[in-house]
Design goal:
The complex is a heterotrimer of chains A (269), B (227) and C (595). Chain A has 269 residues and is α+β, with helices and mostly antiparallel strands. Chain A is 36% helix and 22% strand. A 5-stranded mixed β-sheet of chain A has the order 3-2-1-5-8. In chain A, strands 4-10-9 form a 3-stranded mixed β-sheet. Chain C folds into 2 domains: 251 residues, Cytochrome C Oxidase, Chain A (Up-down Bundle); 235 residues, Cytochrome C Oxidase, Chain A (Up-down Bundle), CATH 1.20.210. Classes of the chains: A alpha+beta (269), B mainly alpha (227), C mainly alpha (595).
Chain lengths: 269, 227, 595
């Protein structure tokens, strides 16, 4: 039965690896300018993890396979793994520990690129508000400024989604609120995040962007989309019963189409 | 496959147990404190689980208060609605009372220790100092209640602002633990009256009580500086 | 003058023999009965949790299916039998809460630990049997409070076992079950913490103060060390979760604002709390949460090491390495908790800081795996149900651990956070490996606990089908995660997720199959309990002290006497006068080759 177990472990390890090698199930194609670094890091990790996984399972299976035929040696003692414990510990540190820390070091660069680089001075500011169970987006309009949010004025009933008070706040008058995130291609966007009620998260797999909304904290992300198309923005932080259905669309457009879109939206406010 | 032989007879490998003592418990049977204060010499000592276990319990309580302290610090930084309140002056009295009670407890313990090791021939009224400690402990809890009354009269309730929330929270949780300590003291007094009190129980209860004092001083300073 | 004090070898009788039915079987001071009570509680919890998981999986694979009996179970949650999104989330919350708290913390630690730790150190019982009894009954009360959430009009909460604020703190406006249900959940968890703290206290004191003559710390069996390390973690971790649950309850019932920020609007109404910190809950919870998962796995590591040594008839290549690695895991577990919060909005620099100990924790984990595998080299392992599950544990732990390489890096977490990859990772290590540890312990120790042998053929069948079934169930989770499938969704309505539904259906079939297979185990358990053949004192030829007395041991473990220990528990593969290949810990015989 030991042999059967050894074979089963090998078969499971290989069968598990096949979909990974064949890229059967993968993230949506990357449309961002920073995503390549993330994908590369993912690929490096995949290789290292894959090798560690296969090596460990094969070694385990091999020793189990040999187990039934092992006999105690001349002194009545079984053979000891060459190198003993010291060898195994050194192997752990060198083969796995060092490599994993190296991954971490390289990964830090990727992380810094996303989180420690400030947005460009001419990045387009757009605000996104997450609430149970939809995303709404606000554009600052011609004055480039966002009017203040008055939480007590937020009302789905009157569709005052951001709690704006155009009567008293000058900056609010030209703010444009939309249900989708339309952006021009190849333009850096500075997305300001606001949570209306509970925790949500802004996850755009195609854009390689992922950031939680935190009620009470002003957070932001910035990115540039390099490919025109329509992509999904999904909520990934459990926010209530509608969590599964909470999504919006990212529409990356040519600059001309984006101007048209903006004009249409402004007219419809 | 090694041949299997029955293992040696268990009886042969076990020491006979020491004679059973009346009264359940651990840490040896020879260190009971007599209730009448007569001469007692301890000639057997064994590791007492309760006096080391109490430190384990104290460690857990420290972790809980550490968690609450970090909650306080984070909450203070989270928003600008922190409204410093003046600590009710009765808290100075609380501090004095609990520190004195630690002193009286130590007096009680030293008396017991002295005649347990033969250094004193007799201890008068071993219970007296324990009762005094118990009384001071009750006084402490009463003074905490006074502090809450004083806060309430200023219109500061549990949810009025974060400062008041933490004030009530910290003092209430500490007071609950103090009540536990009082129950322990009562148990010690009762056992002493029946001569079933072990030295280790007294020690463990004493460490816990002193810890309540130390914890109170920490909380007092924390509340003073932050709230 | 008086004599010098004599250090006596062991404490006096801890408690007398039980006399009544109640003191024997219900409110028992005997650690063995308490251990069995915990096991029964864990069994009830795992069956409940498993059924809940089937409901979840069926719904995910076939979203519009009317599940028979579901409407009776929850008329509001499943009108005409089709599960609503809120019912899905409630089931998910309760599934996780039952499993993590009442199975994974209870069975390997409280159940087996309570039964075997005092025996393995040579004690008659734990030093504080009343606290021990209270610890079980407190845990039982916590279980009842949790179950009661099902029976309130509000119903159980839907915020997940992680109960992130403000969803969990605002109250019933945040969602169904978020009122009374959430408060009951928090109260149950708080009560559970108290029970576990009392247990941890006993475990630590047992190891420090109740060891018999000759049982130095170095001679403790590996399981005793594992329980000791786990207790140290439990003491600190549960002591932090409990105040957190108090703060959560206060936000609900007392109008405080520990976790609820200002200016929040739900249902067009301003939430009447302000100033709280959303992230505070996450910090407090995960400071507990990460040690908690090591609390779930470390006893299992101890158990399978113990089982492997006994069945390989040789010690590990280095027991020191195993013990130091377990200590390292425990120590590091407090420094890594922020890896659950990489994109949570905390300072991104903190994310890097947390990722380094997370990456470093691979080192002790790898040492453990390599020592286990390295010890198999050259060994002749006896194959039985217990050793099969121990070997399976190694395979599962490797798989689960390797997915940690991904999740430890914040840059990769950008893609994998809150996806099925995370769910696959923790199910592999907790939902499979830790459970394999429990199964291994069960098959190994059932004879000693009950005096009867389990059926080994059924045990092997159970192993095979479960091993293959769990791989089929949980390996695909990783593929889903790489494809960016977000977790905690009750349905997959996004365009990019729809092509993944067939894989979900495959998982559901595998899960239901694996669940059905557990009937073999249940049948074996019950049948052996009632009709199993009588078990000898030492069926596996083990060396540690649990094997020296008959099965099951008498009420005072060693018949009123104290064992004396001469060796560590690793005396296997030694030459003895009688021809046996092992020396028991309490045997004065020493082998020419051994210690």
């Amino acid at each position: 039965m030991a042999r059967l177990l050894a074979v089963t472990i090998i078969v499971i390890a290989i069968v598990s690896a096949i979909p990974v090698i064949m890229h059967t199930w993968e993230a949506p194609a990357d449309i961002s300018t920073h995503g390549q670094m993330i994908d590369d890091q993912m690929a490096d990790t995949m290789i290292e993890a894959g090798i560690s996984f296969l090596a460990a399972q094969i070694l385990l299976a091999l020793f189990i396979w040999k187990s039934p035929t092992n006999k105690p040696g001349p002194e009545g003692k079984f053979k000891v793994f060459p190198g003993g414990a010291k060898g195994l510990i050194i192997a752990s540190i060198v083969l796995v520990g060092v490599e994993v820390l190296a991954l971490g070091a390289f990964g830090s660069k990727v992380w810094a690129r996303v989180y420690f680089t400030p947005p460009a001075a001419d990045a387009m500011p757009i605000q996104v508000q997450a609430g149970q169970f939809a995303f709404y987006f606000r554009y600052p309009g011609k004055d480039g400024k966002f009017g203040p949010i008055h939480p007590e004025m937020i009302s789905e009933a009157t569709q005052n989604l951001f709690g704006l008070d155009p009567e008293h706040d000058v900056e609010s008058r030209d703010d444009v609120v939309a249900a989708e995130l339309a952006i021009p291609v190849n333009k850096e966007i500075h997305l300001l995040m606001h949570a209306k009620d509970v925790s949500h998260s802004f996850y755009v797999p195609a854009l390689r962007i992922h950031q939680d909304f935190v009620p009470g904290l002003d957070l932001s992300v910035h990115f540039t989309a390099a490919k025109i198309g329509k992509y999904e923005i999904v909520c990934s932080q459990l926010c209530g019963l509608g969590h599964y259905n909470m999504r919006a669309y990212l529409e990356v457009m040519s600059p001309e189409d984006f101007d048209d879109w903006q004009k249409k939206q402004a007219a419809a406010q | 496959m090694a041949t299997t032989i029955p293992p040696p007879e268990p009886e042969a490998l076990l020491l006979p147990k020491r004679p059973q003592m009346s009264g359940a418990g651990n840490s040896g049977g020879h260190d009971f404190v007599p209730a009448d204060g007569s001469l007692r010499v301890v000639d057997q000592y064994s590791p007492a689980p309760s006096s080391s276990a109490i430190w384990v319990g104290i460690a857990a309580i420290c972790m809980s208060f550490a968690a609450l302290t970090s909650a306080l610090i984070v909450r203070q930084g989270a928003s600008s609605d922190w409204r410093h309140l003046t600590l009710p002056p009765v808290l100075f009295f609380s501090t004095f009372v609990i520190l004195v009670s630690s002193g009286t407890l130590e007096v009680a313990r030293r008396h017991v220790a002295a005649f347990m090791t033969g250094r004193a021939a007799h201890v008068e009224s071993p219970r007296r100092w324990l009762y005094i400690t118990l009384g001071l402990g009750l006084l402490f809890v009463a003074s905490q209640y006074m502090a809450w009354v004083q806060l309430r009269s200023q219109g500061l309730y549990l949810a009025t602002n974060p400062n008041s929330s933490f004030f009530y929270l910290f003092t209430a949780i500490h007071a609950l633990h103090v009540l536990g300590g009082l129950a322990g003291l009562l148990r010690v007094i009762i056992k002493l009256s029946h001569s079933t009190l072990r030295r280790s129980t007294l020690d463990a209860t004493a460490y816990y009580w002193h810890f309540m004092g130390v914890l109170w001083v920490y909380l007092f300073v924390l509340l003073w500086m932050r709230i | 003058m008086h004599d010098k004090p004599i250090v006596s070898t062991a404490p006096a009788v801890v408690h007398g023999p039980p006399t009544t039915f109640i003191s024997k079987h219900v409110f028992s001071l005997d650690h063995k009965v308490i251990g069995k009570q915990y096991y029964a509680l864990a069994l009830a919890a795992v069956l409940t949790g498993m059924v809940l998981s089937w409901l979840m999986r069926i719904h995910l694979g076939w979203n519009d299916l009317a599940i028979p009996g579901l409407q009776a179970f929850s008329p509001n949650g499943a009108p005409s039998g089709v599960m609503t999104p809120e019912l899905y989330l409630r089931i998910m919350t309760m599934h996780a809460t039952f499993m993590v708290f009442f199975v994974l913390t209870t069975a390997p630690f409280a159940a087996f630990g309570n039964f075997f730790l005092p025996i393995q150190v040579g004690a008659e019982d734990m030093p504080f049997p009343h606290f021990n009894m209270m610890s079980f009954w407190t845990t039982f009360v916590a279980f009842c409070v949790l179950v009661s959430a099902f029976f309130t009009s509000d119903g159980p909460p839907l915020s997940g076992w992680t109960a992130y604020a403000p969803l969990s703190a605002i109250g019933k406006d945040a969602g169904p079950g978020q009122g009374t249900g959430q408060v009951l959940w928090a109260a149950a968890i708080g009560i559970f913490c108290i029970g576990q703290l009392l247990g941890a206290l006993n475990f630590i004191s047992t190891v420090l103060d109740m060891r018999c003559k000759g049982m130095t710390l170095k001679r403790l069996p590996v399981t005793a060390w594992a329980w000791f390390i786990t207790s140290c973690m439990g003491l600190t971790a549960f002591a932090v979760l409990m105040p957190a649950t108090i703060l959560l309850i206060l936000d609900h019932v007392a109008g405080t604002s520990f976790f609820i920020a200002s200016g929040l609007v739900i249902n067009d109404q301003l939430v009447p709390h302000s100033g709280g910190s959303t992230l505070l809950w996450q910090h407090l919870f995960w400071f507990f949460g990460h040690p908690e998962v090591y609390i779930a796995i470390v006893p299992g590591m101890g158990i399978i090491t113990h089982v492997l040594i006994t069945n390989m008839r040789r010690p590990m290549v280095s027991m020191k390495a195993i013990l130091y690695s377990m200590w390292a895991l425990a120590f590091l577990s407090y420094m890594v908790y922020g890896h659950h919060m990489f994109v949570s909005g905390m300072n991104p620099f903190s994310s890097l800081v947390f990722s380094f100990p997370t990456l470093m924790i691979t080192i002790p984990s790898t040492v453990l795996v390599l020592i286990w595998i390295g010890s198999l080299y050259g060994s002749r392992i006896r194959i039985n149900a217990a050793s099969l599950f121990a070997l399976g544990f190694i395979s599962m732990f490797v798989t689960g651990g390797v997915s940690g390489f991904f999740l430890a890096q914040p840059s990769i977490d950008i893609m994998l956070h809150a996806t099925y990859f995370v769910v696959g990772h923790f199910h592999m290590v907790m939902g499979v490996a830790a459970i394999f540890g429990i199964f291994s312990g069960t098959y190994f120790w059932f004879p000693k606990m009950t005096g009867r042998m389990m059926n080994d053929t059924l045990g092997k069948a159970h192993f095979w089908l479960t091993f293959i079934g769990t791989y089929c169930t949980f390996m695909p989770f990783h593929y889903l995660g790489w494809a960016a499938n977000v977790r905690r969704y009750s349905a997959f309505t996004d365009d990019y997720l729809k092509p993944l539904i067939p894989l979900h259906q495959f998982i559901t079939v595998a899960a239901l199959f694996t669940g059905a297979v557990q009937l073999i185990f249940l049948y074996n358990l019950v049948h052996s309990l009632l009709r199993g053949p009588a078990a000898p004192a030492n069926p596996w030829e083990g060396t540690s002290l649990e094997w020296i007395m008959p099965s099951p041991p008498p009420w005072n473990n060693f018949g009123g006497k104290d064992p004396v220990v001469y060796h560590d528990a690793d005396q296997y593969g030694v030459k003895t006068a009688s021809g046996a290949d092992y020396i028991m810990q309490n045997s004065p015989e020493s082998s020419p080759t051994g210690c």
